[in-house]
Structures
1.
Amino acid sequence: MTAPPAPPRRRRLLVALPLAALALAALASTLYLRRPEEIQIPRAEAIAEQLRTVFEVHVSEVVGPASAWRSTAELEWTSTAVERVADTLGGPPEFRTTMAGPVRMARVPVPELRAFAPPMGQDVLGDIVLTDYNFDHGQNYAIYLIVHEIGHVLDWRSHKHLSQAVSAETGARRCDPENPSIGCVFDAGQAVEPPPGNPDKPYAAVSSEEYWAEVFASTVYPDYYQQNAANNPVGPQTEQTVKTRLQGMRAE
Ligand SMILES: [Zn+2]
């Protein structure tokens, strides 16, 4: 991805720290960094309530000492991300059917860590973990990344069928015709259309899972990569493949 850049290498060390350290950092930030005055309590509670009742999206506590939400804007952006996914799918009922169960979003007060969607079995905090970092780089980045993480949740719940199928259907893999038994390996460079994002270093090239999350997110929310004319948009054929796959999930 072009902007914002990944955190500097030394900060990435945090990613490797065990959950205990994460919890400690969370506690420290809760004690020293919270700015509760920026939360408009009735509005924050209304957004959380709407996410829960309309979309079955459960966000962690929005008020009180355990809340890591720093502003009502963070909740607005989270809500926009969910609404944009629902718009692409056809509406709130289609969103709930496609997600096939509640989505838990945990807001943790951790500064230098990207938001993430842990695979099933490692999702003690939530299906999606939203960090300060996620919200510290502007509205478009925050919304885009939440959509990207929702893409990962869909993929985990399909047991990676989505990411495998979409990379196969868009040709994002290399197969050896001489040795068909070996199978194919993921290769975004082989795709029928360039992957969305930075043309020199597309994040989608990292793995089939990231490829899926990126083509999903840029189909749902093209606004983010469109900010910079140097970025590739998602190609029309790729976008159609994503939409057809999502429709197929509801038919199952
Ligand atoms: Zn990802």
Note: The mean pLDDT is 89.
2.
Amino acid sequence: MPRYHSAMNTPRTRQEVAALLQAHGVHATRQRIDVAHALFGQTRHLSAEDILEYLNTGPTTETDTDLGRGPLAGRSNDRPVTRRAVSKATVYNTLRLLLERGAIRALVVEATRVLYDPNNAPHHHFFNTLTGELTDFPAGPVTVEGLPVPPAGTVADGVDIVVRIRPTAQTSR
Ligand SMILES: [Zn+2]
């Protein structure tokens, strides 16, 4: 399962995310980089809530009085290096901007849950109905036939295939 992801989608650094924003005509402010990097810095599909939580539970700065005592003490990674609240509005606004510019895709896998996709390559998804996890697979070899003509005044903008999967052995509890 993870091989689908690793083959198609790799985590990006903050510098790469900033370049990606600019390539899509998005002014790369620090907060926008924070939000975009929360998504592009991983290989998972994340909801806005996931991103909000990720940003606001990152490691603390040297000005934080708890530094050196918490479970994240001394931990170095690619997250934002300073603690600052990123508001829900900023997360949603940035995601909407990235969507408008075609930098990410939005996937509605369940009526109540939208996941944002950092993978720009043409691909479709497995959706595990048990865990809610989405896994990528390449669009290359897949063909879809017999699609209806789009309604008047519209054109097809893409076809998203979601293959719903469940464990082979059904366990009953
Ligand atoms: Zn995907």
Note: Residues 45, 117, 119, 123, 125, 136 surround zinc ion (CB under 6 Å).
